[in-house]
């Protein structure tokens, strides 16, 4: 258990005692009061300095590294502040997918085995493809699966390595209300695991480049500004219009019902799936930087996709220069280079 995990455990234990071992709703209300004490401007958010004060009030102290890790864990949108919802979701729901029967390590091993098999068969997009397939197993559209549906879905993916007792253990781990069904979304969040803050920040950088007007939403117009779909193979063959190609790109990042808008959380969820299949941090950084033409990076993670141009100076010297962050800049856009 990491230092940040121990701090979380101490906060939960503190809230249990302070609430007289009340239910989670009572504990959340009490925690909200503590949170508001340090939200001086009433914005509903606290920064790192205020977060440390909250921890001290909750009688929870740790090393600087542990506090940083805990703050990063709750700062879901990488905005540098924590909302009350992010705090309580992280504190009370973070470990809800794990059973309290003393066999956590066994369950983790089964989850890891399923994840490994899905990634081995489907590559980086394996988790997304598996989620789509399992949702098709959900006959009543409730977003939940019983044990037979889960087993049949996994078998349809070619995963037949699990025993009946493994399926039972998975059901017990993710069946929070003991209804005999599990949430497809929670199941795949368990498979994804945590995403490092460094990776989240890279995804944030990519989203901010795509969200050129800073509206907090990416639409087809933002995609149009970043991509020249006239060279898309299906557009060139006449099988697809440019707008249809743009819509296809947009739909890649949308979660759930398509509404023509991609939020940062939807964008991040897409990359959570991708991240789960990439162990090497440098490779993940290179992939993000090259895909979104983000300059920078060091060593093996240094960008190689931004355009390099030969610059002739007035004194007759020549120099190869990189066009920084050149997403959307075409070979004829001289003024933008």
Largest beta-sheet details: 2 strands, antiparallel
Output the helix-strand order.
Answer: HHEHHEHHHEHHEHHHHHHHEE
Biggest sheet strand order reads: 1-2
Helix content: 40-55%
* Dominant shape: globular
Please tell me the overall pLDDT: 82
Number of strands: 6
Rounded radius of gyration (Å):
23 Å
Helix and strand composition category: mainly alpha
What is the count of DSSP helices, taking H or I runs of 4+ residues?
16
Sum this structure up briefly:
The chain is mainly alpha-helical and 337 residues long. The chain contains 16 helices and six strands.
Set down the secondary structure blueprint:
Elements: H1 3-18, H2 24-37, E1 45-46, H3 48-57, H4 64-74, E2 82-83, H5 84-93, H6 104-122, H7 126-137, E3 144-145, H8 147-156, H9 164-174, E4 182-183, H10 184-192, H11 197-210, H12 220-226, H13 233-236, H14 242-253, H15 264-276, H16 281-291, E5 308-312, E6 318-322
Antiparallel strand pairs: 1-2, 3-4, 5-6
Helix pairs in contact: 1-4, 6-7, 7-8, 7-10, 11-15, 11-16
């Amino acid at each position: 258990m990491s230092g940040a995990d121990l701090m979380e455990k101490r906060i939960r234990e503190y809230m249990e005692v302070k609430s007289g071992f009340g239910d989670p709703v009572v504990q959340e209300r009490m925690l909200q009061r503590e949170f508001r004490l340090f939200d001086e401007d009433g914005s509903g958010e606290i920064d790192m300095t205020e977060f440390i004060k909250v921890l001290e009030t909750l009688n929870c102290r740790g090393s600087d590294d542990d506090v940083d890790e805990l703050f990063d864990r709750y700062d879901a949108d990488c905005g540098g502040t924590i909302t009350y919802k992010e705090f309580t979701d992280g504190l009370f729901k973070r470990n809800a997918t794990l059973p309290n029967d003393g066999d956590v390590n066994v369950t983790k091993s089964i989850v890891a085995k399923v994840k490994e098999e899905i990634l081995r068969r489907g590559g980086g997009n394996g988790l997304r493809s598996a989620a789509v397939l399992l949702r098709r197993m959900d006959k009543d559209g409730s977003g939940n699966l019983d044990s037979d549906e889960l087993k049949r879905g996994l078998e349809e993916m070619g995963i037949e390595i699990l025993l009946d007792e493994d399926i039972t253990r998975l059901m017990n781990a993710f069946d929070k209300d003991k209804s005999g069904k599990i949430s497809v979304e929670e199941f795949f969040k368990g498979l994804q695991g945590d995403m490092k803050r460094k990776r989240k920040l890279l995804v944030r950088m990519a989203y901010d480049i795509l969200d050129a007007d800073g509206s907090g939403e990416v639409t087809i117009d933002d995609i149009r500004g970043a991509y020249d779909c006239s060279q898309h193979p299906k557009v060139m063959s006449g099988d697809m219009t440019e707008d249809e190609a743009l819509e296809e790109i947009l739909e890649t990042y949308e979660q759930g019902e398509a509404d023509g808008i991609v939020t940062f959380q939807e964008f991040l969820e897409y990359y959570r799936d991708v991240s789960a299949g990439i162990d090497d941090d440098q490779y993940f950084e290179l992939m993000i930087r090259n895909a979104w033409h983000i300059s920078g990076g060091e060593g093996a993670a240094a960008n190689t996709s931004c355009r390099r141009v030969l610059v002739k100076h007035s004194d007759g010297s020549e120099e190869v220069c990189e066009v920084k962050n050149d997403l959307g800049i075409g070979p004829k856009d001289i003024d933008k280079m």
